[in-house]
Amino acid sequence: xxxxxxxxARIGPWAAIGLMIVAFAxxxxxxxxxRLAIVPHLSIVTPHDKVAVTAIxxxxxxxxxxxxxxxxxxxxxxxxxxxxxxxxxxxxxxxLGFVFGVLYAGFTAMQMMHAGAPIFTDWSLFRxxxxxxxxISAGICEEAVFRGFVMTQAADGGAHWxxxxxxxxxxxxxxxxxxxxxxxxxxIAQLIGAMAATGVLGLMLAITYLASxxxxxxxxxxxxxxxxxxxxxxxxYAVTGGHF
Length: 244
Prior knowledge:
Helix content: over 70%
Largest sheet: none
Order of helices and strands: HHHHHHH
């Protein structure tokens, strides 16, 4: 069901998606430039230092993208509730969010534990801060953008629900291709792996979003929980080129 405009729309739904993609591309260009200007003045020695910088960059990126998306929503004559913010969910949304969250986080955690990640033994302040910072920020911002915003605009543009799901998953996967260069040089296998894994997660969360009646709450909680469990170790693995 198309979101009812709060005010007269000044741009169309596909133009809105295009503007969001442009905003993301600009942020992906500007933030590394800013980081290059700041990092030389910091003492970055250990892998944990690199993870901290990467986590901060990621948190800043998603919140700026969230802000840009909110402004684009205004051009569409819509608001956050139009895309599922504070909208009640059906029981199916909660059930799918729980099942997909357990499956994705559990499978990824087992893989990382097999590679040596101390997922259930490291309760350091560093791990907790990174987990909460990334988890809460990505859960709120990325779900609002890649599920709520993208899928609502696609629906408003007449796209079938299958197209909405695929578009959400593809854009979500492409948005994470930068993981292939977190170690300092591009690793094709890591780039493809990150895109594929996040694409699958995006697919799961998009299905959950529709099953919930287009409520963002189950997807935000599922996404945040997944990232809280696995994200510190994924970042450590990525910045070290495959080590924990």
